[in-house]
Amino acid sequence: MSVESVNVNGKGIKQNTFDAIVIGAGMSGGWAAKEFCEKGLKTLVLERGRNVEHIKDYPTANKEDWEFEHRRQLPHNVRSENPILDRCYAWDESTEHFFVKDNEHPYIQKKPFSWVKGYQVGGKSLMWARMTQRWSDLDFEANAKEGIGSDWPIRYKDIAPWYSYVEKFVGISGNKDGLSQIPDGEFLPPLEMNCLEKHFKKTIEEKYPGRNLVTGRCANLTQAHNGRNQCQNRTKCRRGCPLGGYFSANSSTMPAAIATGNLTLRPFSVVHSVIYDETKNRATGVRVIDSETKETFEYYARVIFVNASTINTTLVLLNSTSNRFPNGLGNDSDALGRYLMDHNYRARLSAEHDGFTDQYYYGRKPTSCYLPRFRNFNGDKQDSFIRGYAYSLGASRSRGNVQESDEPIGADYKEKLTQVGPWRVGLTGMGECLPYADNRITLSKDQTDQWGMPLIEIDAEFKENEEAMVEDILDQGEEMLDAAGFKDIQKSDSKNHMGLGIHEMGTARMGKDPKNSVLNGNNQLHAVKNVFVTDGASMASTACQNPSITYMALTARATDFAVSEMNKGNL
Amino acid sequence: MNRRDALSTVSLILGGTVVGSHAFLTGCQPKRSFKSGILKPDDMILLEEVAETILPTTENSPGAKAAGVGEFMNPMITDCYPEVEQQIFTAGLVQLESTCKTQYGDRFIDLKPEQRHQFLLSLEKEAKEYNTDRETKNDGTAPQPHYYSMIKQLTLLGYFTSEIGQTQALRYLPVPGKYQGCIPYNGEPAWG
């Protein structure tokens, strides 16, 4: 008897029935899995990629640069076959096995959009940048105040306890800085600033009241935490950390879910659609295509969490059509697929400083400093743009101290190359991106991928507000660097198009009003109460903080709500 | 101790490039085995001598040759460079030898260390002029880099990402164990 035929008889349905189904085993899906399993629900996690087991499946984690044939550079043919990935800063010879090759999941760019994907258990939580600033009411109230997009159906007070809840498990190093735009959280000891970063902090806090520099809050452990080891400052994080020194689904949430005995993990599972039962007005399960055999299966559950990463989450919903929902599950508002956003990381600066030549540092810092938002906040008002941006900032001493007049080869040259050079600093602006109805994803009507799924069409771009911010990021950055005595200040606009922030958000946004949003304040589809979305797709705005910690908090909050509703018999 | 280690030990003792090291390496043993690629064994032997002239063994650390920079260039050129640059590189090696022959009447590997040094200084000058010209021309033809610039770039990359470069020329901490933002600096080599 084939597996497929098992599915159609009664026993098969029973075998394929769970309390909860979670689609996606990454940053947010891992949290849904852990929470459901720990609350005693038999949980099926569907992951379209392969399994990546903590430690065992980190083949490059302990390799040194010289152990890579191309010293971490990727071969020319690999790069030219992957023009999208080639723009991603994190893709190299040491991490390539965690990224989806361009041709493995094609999509249609109606406008240039670089979609960076990680299909495996752990998703992109393996390769993330680990910055975890909380969002605040400056962010949650912005849409309502400005009449833009959908009003967030939650405020900071609703999510604050859930930030604390996830932070205590994740392990966030940080300093309690008392800044309202990035509220303090549950922190492990902070990473220290180096002397040039301290100098910059002192200067701007004196000369620019309302601007601050803090050490970045980040998901690297500055002490052993929940059975994981202290970060050893190797900065090989993106290859997977055998010590569990940073948070990934693989090191943290998935092992916790597995430990309960309630988890069933099915890798190689491309979700085709959510099955909707019109008579009951609820979802009954999901259709799955085995990515290797192309066989189809059905799985059933009382509650379904879609955590497939922003664009794939919306792909699943758009592809879940029925008489009741001809344009995608829960898409009464036509908001599904719209309001695609990404952080704008185009603006960068670098500069050199002559001082502090008697100072250095020890070890490698797995995060940078953070200059939180100061625009259109706390009395500041800009004419050319709304919202704001933050900077990440890192200073280090360059390697090599060669002067123009030095002989360019030979023994002296070599010695000078090994010496410590001047201090340099790099700044990256991280700009908020507004929700625009015409920045959207749709499904191709005539083209499909190797699993028979419609190709995703992405039609999105940064617009005037984002452009204006790039200019201000560069101008203010230059002014502050100048004020802090830096020289040789270089400014650049990479002109990168959307996607490369790798913070895709929106397309199934939360909102108070079902007429302009897809999800309610509990991340439930307005129209189908037992389907939830708690990944980036649910976001109603981007803020300028990195989003993952907020996805995690929303997920923990929504699972708690879902279980309580199930216990009350409401789901 | 293998032959390469032996050679670098000799280099260390002598505090510099071993004269006739090509013969030392190849003369009394059948052949070194190289992974196949665009570069031929002779190319790599030439390149490691060029690289060694750029970054020689000093009393502080072994040089580019001991760090295997010649062999490192083969997979890099073969796999990581587009065809047009591969051609410039391989044609450049021929050019290097013929210029050397014209100026010194000998192959590069047969020159004395001081001659090698002087010869590469002349290539530095040539490449610098070429590159300046290339930048100022800006006529849309996008001329390719000078072959010597490619060799030098690969030499620096290969050396400072090698185990020797990282751990002996620089100070490499495989597992730092902690981060300290501010410590006094007293002229030690940079961190690898």
Quick structural gist:
The complex is a heterodimer of chains A (571) and B (192). Chain A is an alpha/beta fold and 571 residues long. Chain A has 13 helices and 19 strands.
Features:
heterodimer, A: 571 residues, alpha/beta, FAD/NAD(P)-binding domain, 7-stranded mixed sheet, 6-stranded antiparallel sheet, 19 strands, 20% strand, globular, disordered N terminus, B: 192 residues, mainly alpha, 8 helices
Question: Could you describe the 3D structure shown?
Answer:
The complex is a heterodimer of chains A (571) and B (192). By secondary structure, chain A is of the alpha/beta class. Chain A has a single domain (3-174, 216-344, 432-462, 497-567), classed as FAD/NAD(P)-binding domain. Helix content of chain A is 23%, strand content 20%. Chain A has helices spanning 3-6, 10-15, 27-38, 76-81, 137-140, 142-146, 156-170, 195-207, 249-259, 310-318, 411-418, 464-483, 548-567; strands at 17-23, 43-46, 108-109, 172-173, 187-188, 214-215, 263-266, 269-277, 282-290, 296-306, 347-353, 359-362, 369-371, 389-399, 420-431, 440-448, 454-459, 487-493, 531-533. Chain B is mainly alpha-helical and 192 residues long. Chain B has one domain (3-136, 143-169). The longest helix of chain B is centred in the middle third of the chain and has 25 residues, at 113-137. The radius of gyration of chain B is 18 Å and the shape is globular. Chains A and B meet through helix 8, strand 12 and helix 11 of A and helix 4, helix 6, helix 7, helix 8 and strand 1 of B.
| CATH-defined superfamily of chain A | FAD/NAD(P)-binding domain
Percent in strands of chain A: 15-25%
* Straight-line N-to-C gap of chain B: 26 Å
Structural class of chain A, by secondary structure, is alpha/beta
Return the CATH class of chain A: Alpha Beta
Question: How many domains make up the 3D coordinates of chain B?
Answer: 1
- Please report the total strand number of chain B as a whole number: 1
Q: What is the CATH architecture descriptor of chain A?
A: 3-Layer(bba) Sandwich
Helix content bin of chain B: 55-70%
Q: Sum up the overall morphology of chain A in one term.
A: globular
What fraction strand of chain B? under 5%
Radius of gyration of chain A: 24 Å
What spatial form of chain B do the alpha-carbon principal axes imply? globular
Structural class of chain B: mainly alpha
Which percent range fits the helix content of chain A? 10-25%
Quaternary structure type = heterodimer
Largest sheet of chain B: none
Unreliable residue runs of chain B: 1-30
The largest inter-chain interface, given as chain pair and residues per side, is: A-B, 47 and 49 residues
Total of DSSP H or I helical runs spanning 4+ residues of chain B: 8
